[in-house]
Amino acid sequence: MKTRKWYDFLWIWSIVYFALGFFNILFAWLGMIDFLVPLFFAIFAGNKHFCNRYCGRGQLFSVLGSKLSRGKTTPRALSSKLFRYGFLAFFLAMFGNMVFQTYLVATGANSLRQAVKLFWTIRVPWKWAYSGFLPQNLEWIAQFSYGFYSIMLTSTLIGLIVMLFFKPRSWCAFCPMGTMTQSICKIKARNLIEKSNKE
Q1: Do 35 and 177 touch, CB atoms closer than 8 A?
Q2: What is the pTM of this model?
Q3: Is 133 helix (H, G, I), strand (E, B) or coil?
């Protein structure tokens, strides 16, 4: 029997993250760990160890999928280069819009919008998660929290949907972070080859 490591239980972190954000939206900032650490691995180590070993969300899909997934083969379309990079571009556009909305609140051009957007369109009031305890000039922190929590929740819901119909970790086939880190790793590997050829 395989000995389980501490990182085999990181799926619990995904549940804790969403639970904390449900009651206090400012905890959404903790999601930046899942955003920055994969990039750190790719940029400085040139690998996808985070995706393969430390991704709590992927583990959560595996745990739930072992009971709920139909286990059908993930459609090739979802892992095609066109779809993966198209979804990455869309994801980055949504992230850019979130940052822009945060900027508008920071400059006083817009007031804080206390709502989470599911699937980038459905506004769900989330006012209980923030009681307005930040000074007005710092409400951009809460605005970013709402936007980032929306992205994290929406992407997880998409992952759960494809998990139900296909293999548990089908989300990983087109995960924007996975696509981004894979691209970085390929660029690093290519640069190493070119450097070694020159020497």
Answers
A1: yes
A2: 0.90
A3: coil
Angle at 120 between CA 163 and CA 148, to 5 degrees: 85
Sorted by sequence, the CB contacts under 8 Å of residue 104 that are 6+ apart come out as: 110
For residue 116, the cross-strand partners are 124
Q: Phi/psi at 197 (nearest 5 deg)?
A: -70, -35
Return the axis-axis angle of helices 81-106 and 176-198, rounded to nearest 10°: 110
Supply the DSSP string of 51-112, one letter for each residue.
IIII-HHHHHHHHHHHHH---BPPPHHHHSHHHHHHHHHHHHHHHHHHHHHHHHHHTTSS--
Q: Please count the residues of the chain.
A: 199
Confidence of residue 133 (pLDDT cuts 50, 70, 90): confident
pLDDT confidence of residue 199: 64
Instruction: Characterize the bridge pairing of strands 115-118 and 122-125.
Output: antiparallel
Distance CA 185, CA 191 (A): 10
Tokens of 12: 């619990």
Cα–Cα distance for residue pair 142/193, rounded to 1 Å: 45
Q: How far is CA 25 from the centre of its chain?
A: 16
Burial 68-96 (b: 16+ CB within 10 A, else e): ebeeeebeeeeeeeebbeebbeebeebee
Q: How many DSSP H helices and E strands does the chain contain?
A: 8, 2
Residues 83, 77 contacting (CB under 8 angstroms)? yes
